[in-house]
Amino acid sequence: MCLYKLLLVRNWNFSEHPHVRYNPLRGEWVLVSPHRGKRPWAGQVEDIQADAIPIYDPKNPLCPRNTRANGEINPDYQHTFVFTNDFPALMPDTPSPMESDDPLFQIKGAKGTCKVMCYHPHSDRHYANMELTDIFLVIQEWIKQYNIIGKNFLWVQIMENRGDVMGCSNPHPHCQIWASDYFPNEPRIKHDKLKEYYEKHKEPMLRDYLKKEMAKQERIVYENKEWVVLVPFWAFWPFETMVLPKRQIQRMSDLDNTQIKYLGRMFKEFTAKYDNLFDCSFPYSMGFHGAPTGEQFEIDMPFWTFHAVYYPPLLRSASVKKFKAAYELLAQDQRDISPELAAKRLREQATIR
Length: 353
Hints:
Layout: H1 3-11, E1 19-23, E2 28-32, E3 81-84, E4 112-118, H2 132-150, E5 155-162, E6 174-180, H3 185-201, H4 205-216, E7 220-223, E8 227-230, E9 241-245, H5 257-277, E10 284-289, E11 307-311, E12 314-317, E13 320-321, H6 327-330, E14 334-335, H7 339-347
Parallel strand pairs: 2-14
Antiparallel strand pairs: 1-2, 3-4, 4-6, 5-6, 5-10, 7-8, 8-9, 9-11, 10-11, 12-13
Helix pairs in contact: 2-5
């Protein structure tokens, strides 16, 4: 290596200088530009709604005893409540089109089901201010729905949008469960990459990754007896995180009582960190990924590690969010704040809201 290049390497700092990082779960590179965090902000500022959320809203279709758009009346539920989405994106009994042989006009049928799951009868509740016993009931209902729906569909996606910024117009604590008879793009790509890594290295990728992150301690945000929350080395969203189990499991159905107990604690304590970061009801999209279900439900897939991901849009305050636009849409993903700094800021937050 010539002297000039050697000096450049010695002077390089990943918290200051632009660089790209590889995401092994997608086979893509992310541009990290940490120096841009110093630039003044003249972009869009979100209108943050700070109004107190009532315990009960007679006009909210997710509250107990209220009438939904299809005319059905919700029961007077005391804990969780699950129903089929009144406006589902997927349905189990739709006809399928004739498949095309043309390579440019491929089309296939899509069957599935869409559920809505309310976490609690009170609209002002979320993980940080819920009782642990109520959070345990949420996790147990997730597992129940996963097992029932997973018998019939290849993929079961449990997911939650929180906040107006994420397009969630209803503040009542809830999630959605969409299931499909085909492999959606994101988990399909992840499935292939996890399998490739396992075949080459004989170890699950995310198990290897967690071991190395635990040794480095640079991007760990939260951990308890069973779970670790970290900002991925390759994270795209400013305060993106991944939740990984300390004991290898492949699917949500593999969770034992101890893992459920500490997963509940994680939800309560870690989401408080998010809320404390900008002193707001922190918006995000989150969801779980694990080995596929349906006809593959009973197949052992040691390359899969069950995990959750959080994709929050906020960038530098409660009112400034990151957009995926321009360069990210036309070239590649790009972030400003380094994953290490994001992890440090989250790690410093209290676990009580």
